[in-house]
Amino acid sequence: MTNSHGQKQTTQPPMADGEPLNAQIYQRLRWALILGDYEPGDRMSIRSIATELDSGLMPVREALQRLASERALTSANKRSFRVSELQPGQASDLFFVRARLESIATELATPMMTQGQVERLDDLARLMDEDIERENIREFLARNYTFHFTIYTAARNEELVHVIENLWAQSGPFLAQGVRRHGMSQEWQLFHSKIAAAIRARDASLASSLIETDISWGVEEFRKLASHKP
Fold it and tell me: What is the pLDDT, as a whole number, of residue 180?
């Protein structure tokens, strides 16, 4: 599958056996949004996606309509959708909500995470460091997702995780766009290792505070843009 810029998408989300076709397409497209394969305002043609996936039009339409109902897309016309375009202030608000909810999920998850899960966080933090050094943005974003949701799913609150994941699909194109424009800060190399260390120490307060600071990058970035907009 390729995005609207003709770039091949090599990383796909895990699929549950027996999922209906429209659900599988929905998962693939939401994953592409989370990784920033589509940018704000990009057109997503029902026919083009169906051709790429060797699918009928109806399952693709249903998947896109579902993403639109979750505010990740907007309907352009009967044949296509667009990635939602937000004003800087709206994007800042989106990251603010993410930061607060993900802080709560981390606080809940910290005492329940297994040793294996914490070791997984350490491995992912190390690999993300390598992604930053190599400027491998897409792999960084994929591992970043895995790092965060390894934590959030450990909270054992499906509703909270569902809401957070929907917010990731909405904010993914904006996060990826910001990273491509400004690069990946070396400061990020410290954050994920610090989060893993706090969880290893079962310091839920510190871990949740670090997560909130990490996500607040988007709050500050888009707040600056909003303040400079005429």
Answer: 83
